[in-house]
Amino acid sequence: MSDRSIIGALACAILVLLPWGGSGWCGESGPDAAAVPVPADSAAAGPDSTRAAGADSAAAIEALPSRISEADSASVDPFIPVWRSFMSADDKDVALGSEMSIVNLPGSDWIMNSVLRVEKKSYRGRDMEDINEQLTSNAVKIRPGLYRVMVIMGENYTKKKTLGLARYGKDLIYDTKSAMIDAAYTKPLLGASSSQLAFRGDARGGTQDFKYDKTLAGGVSSLFTYDFGGLLRVKAGGGILHKHETSEIGSIVFGGMPSRADTVRVGAEYGEEDEKLMSVSYERITGIDRKASPPRGNSLEILDNPELVKEEEARLNVEKLEIGSHVQPFRFLVVDIDFLHRLSSQKHKVDKRLSKETEESALRASTNYSFSKSGVINVAVSTKERTDDYGPLSLSSFTEKEKKVTMRLKQDVTDSLSVAMSGSAWLKQRFFKKRDANPRDADYLYYKIEGSMNASLHPRMKANIVGVITRNETINIDRTLSGDNRNDFQYRLAPKIQLNPTSWLDLSQEYSIKIEYTDFVYKENENYLNRTTTMITNAFIKVLQPLLFSFKHIYLMRDSGSYLLRDGMRRYNREGENFEYGLFLKAHYRYSADLDLIAEADFKTQENNRLGFREGEKIVTSSTVYDSGGLKIGINRKHTFWKNGKIDLDINYVKRFGPYLSAERREYWIVNSSIAYTF
Amino acid sequence: MRAKMALIIVLLTLLTAAGGCVFEPRKAELPDTGDDGTWITPNLPKDVFVNLITGLAADANSNYERSLDQNFTFIPLTEDVSALGSEVFEGWNKEIEMEMLTRLKGIFLGERTFQFGDENMVFEREDIDVGYAEFEGEYVITLETGDGSPVETYAGRAIFYLEKQTQGWMLTRWEDIDVSGSFPSSGYLRGTLRGSN
């Protein structure tokens, strides 16, 4: 091992050990205060450590510098410290931070990575700031086909400091020290084509908002896959996880709260790898999760009244069965059928409003029919039924039934012309179990028809047109709510044309005409209709090789009003109209390969008119005009220095105007810059 | 031959859909004269809050539903995510918000009130641009079960993002940013009503 590797290993060890040497490097000590508690996710640790560990390993490897992950590790430097400082700012917040990472390859296929990161964010216009300090060290060793070992240790400290009255000056603090080991034996066992036996141990502790938690968790899992003749594959696996958590809230201690979760998964597939003719899978998860919880929501009151904390117990039970088939009886016909049945229940001891039982069944069948070389039609039918039960005392339990039919057709008429059509109908019905006390039974019926055409009229000219019609019907069954029953109609037609007359000019223009109409079944005096016409023009001009210029203009005209029955006829009574113009200009000048200058300007104006009658004539009774816009000037500079240093500057100055803009939004900087050096 | 078959399938599907006979919904009862809350055409950004207030108070959901943009989303506080789990808030959209509202109205059968900003609906920050607006300030929700139980109060600070769509102004995002006193936030209310499984 080289000297640099030894130094790297020592540095990693120091970084890892620091947080365990007393109160931790973040400065917040542990369990003293009334301040407190448990990792938010401590209860969420899943029972299937195989999957979780796999994801963590991938994340750890992805975090490595590219020169490690992309290159042959034998030819790269075994010890790579990288320092990076960064800043970001916009109209909402300003953040400053610094990060030091060390990648170390001590040999024997181990990859070690340590990251120390500090970031402070201040919110503009709000007396609030966030501080985040993070130290993570991980070591990974993977022997493909034999085993995998991963160790992660670290501390994550977050403080949200509010200076306002809302929190009475109290800070929100999360500080978690954690250590996790994950190991898996991946050499096939017991005649399986592939298998995995995994172990995971987890220890963590620290302040979690209103409490201080100490958690120990451990689990094992396995997964076996058997392959018979390349056509039949059978999978089986499972896992168990146990957790013990102690929470301290002031002088009150909730000790040794045990939690557990068990998983069983089995499945079988028949067919070629990509063409599974049949698949079946079953999964069952059971568990109990116990943790200290505030009585209702806001934890601030717990800081003064820790005796209000309760030990919550949530019992979880989930079963899921999935069956799928994929059949292609002819080259031009494919039929897919999928079935799902799912049962789940979650029962809470304290906050019973969170308790719920759900049963869900769904069946979907779809057919793809290629009626010609360039045409395909798809028809899908699905049905679903779900019951949500909130317990015997609740009025909210209901059963929901859904049925849906969808049809899609696509045909390439010629090489330059294609058309597509689709239509769908969907009925959703909700049946409440205690309809007399909670009369919210309702049906929802949706229809949608859409057509589009794409054409290349000329090598330098393309056209596209889309038309959509939708009808959404809301039907409340009970008389107390049926006054709200209505049909919402929408018609939209949107043609678009694109021109590319020369190599330096792209033009496009799109139009949209949209009519929205709501028809209340029993309250005709509330019927209303909106008509919107939009025209958008785009131009993209390459003035010179390094100078690009873009132009966008938007025109929008909308009127709205009632559409009521008068003398047996529906008459449209315009009540308001609205005009909008928007102009957006952008110039982009590439001074060199690593320096861009950008300038943008926009201007928008909006006129709103209320309409009425005077002496039998329609007039504008009131009118308001808003103007707004802004200017943005920026520079984007990428620069390398001393061979391994990198500066990335993206700095923009923004100035905006408008009638109702706060000072923070009138003038600000948008920054996203960093400086990094790889030692 | 195949093209003809495809055409027949398409025509049959379209005809069936156009005839409205693909699915047969239930028949509604004739309405009584209940007050469902007056709808205000949202020509101005703050009209949205008025419709949300009446939409929460009324038994019917239409005022609330028509005030939410199709891409509506809710961003909870870190504390609420910690307390209830991130899966409770995952993919929060208009459909989930409306399901939450329906369940809320099934639990709180008494008076339901909303307050946005101060008593006069004035927010601490109001940014209104052409077609886009942001309001930042307090909100208070009071809910009565109607059985004599104490009133439940939820409050906090939030940023409300609004956009002007073709049907007028709509709420596109509700982001809880802080608590208010010792009250649970709207995120806690939403999370407990959605449940997690």
Describe the structure.
The complex is a heterodimer of chains A (679) and B (197). By secondary structure, chain A is mainly beta. In chain A, 6% of the residues lie in helices and 70% in strands. Chain A has a domain at 528-679. Chain A has helices at 3-17, 49-62, 66-69, 300-304, 663-666; strands at residues 79-89, 93-107, 110-123, 128-143, 147-162, 172-185, 194-208, 211-228, 232-249, 252-271, 276-293, 310-330, 333-348, 356-372, 375-389, 398-414, 417-432, 442-458, 461-476, 486-502, 505-520, 528-544, 547-566, 569-592, 595-614, 617-641, 645-657, 667-678. Chain A has a 28-stranded antiparallel barrel. In chain A, a hairpin with a 2-residue loop joins strand 20 and strand 21 (505-520). The radius of gyration of chain A is 32 Å and the shape is globular. The longest helix of chain B has 17 residues, at 2-18. The model of chain B has no long low-confidence stretch (mean pLDDT 86). Chain B has one domain: Roll (Nuclear Transport Factor 2, Chain: A). Chain B is an alpha+beta fold. Chain B is globular and about 70 Å long. Chain B has 7 helices and 6 strands.
CATH class categorisation of chain B: Alpha Beta
Q: Label the structural class of chain A.
A: mainly beta
Largest sheet of chain A: 28 strands, antiparallel, barrel
H/I helix tally of chain A: 5
Largest sheet: number of strands, sense, barrel closure of chain B? 6 strands, mixed
